[in-house]
Amino acid sequence: MPATPAWPPASTPRLFIDSALGEGMAVPVDGAAANYLGNVMRLKEGDPVRLFDDRTGEWLAEVSSVSKRSLTLAITAQLSVREDVPDLWLVAAPIKKGRIDWVAEKACELGVARLVPVITRRTIVDRLNVERLRTHMIEAAEQCGRTALPEITEPVKLGALLRDWPADRTLYFADEAGGLPFVDVAKPGPAAILVGPEGGFTDEERVAIRAVPGATGTSLGPRILRAETAAAAAIAIWMAAAGDWRSESR
Description:
Blueprint: E1 14-16, E2 26-30, H1 31-40, E3 48-52, E4 58-66, E5 70-80, E6 88-92, H2 99-110, E7 114-119, H3 130-144, E8 151-152, E9 156-157, H4 158-163, E10 170-174, E11 180-181, H5 182-185, E12 191-195, H6 203-210, E13 215-219, H7 227-241
Parallel strand pairs: 1-3, 6-7, 6-12, 7-8, 7-9, 10-12, 10-13, 11-13
Antiparallel strand pairs: 2-5, 3-4, 4-5
Helix pairs in contact: 2-3, 2-7
């Protein structure tokens, strides 16, 4: 007998809905999302859509009505609960537009719980569109099957960040002046990775960071990395050594 096709199909579009979802709900969709589903994907009544809300998990819905500029989705079943994510923050100095967007996308894909933009002495970006970064994270989550989104905060100055640093959270910072190999010191538990701007930290900032209880200067290897590459590499190292990439945590 022929195999029963998987349902919903792997090609089913995914959409983030910024409100709590539940079985039996009717979800109106308009704007860019409606244009994507109706005009790009050409969905019609009865076609499936996956929805997630960063609260309850992922849901299966089907198109119940379609009009020129909007459509309605009827939720039929829950596919999964919201995924657990390790308690890891990425604290990163804003870099040029395009590159900081990439950092936000990869932070979401790699499983970071919170993105904290930090303003340092050598930060060259003085304005940051937090909503744009959130949009990039939502798009990454939609494409990669994530059911949890990183929280993103407003930018904070380094001095204020360090002054209010929580005592129970380990602070690893990528120190271009040298530090312990990150793979050797990464450990489970509440943690944050601090990555500086293109020009790195000043000597004064480095001293202030190291004065924070639990702060550890780390090395990401023998090669010089751009700020965005250092952020992605550090997250990957921590996830592999102490996060949910470890085989025993699956």
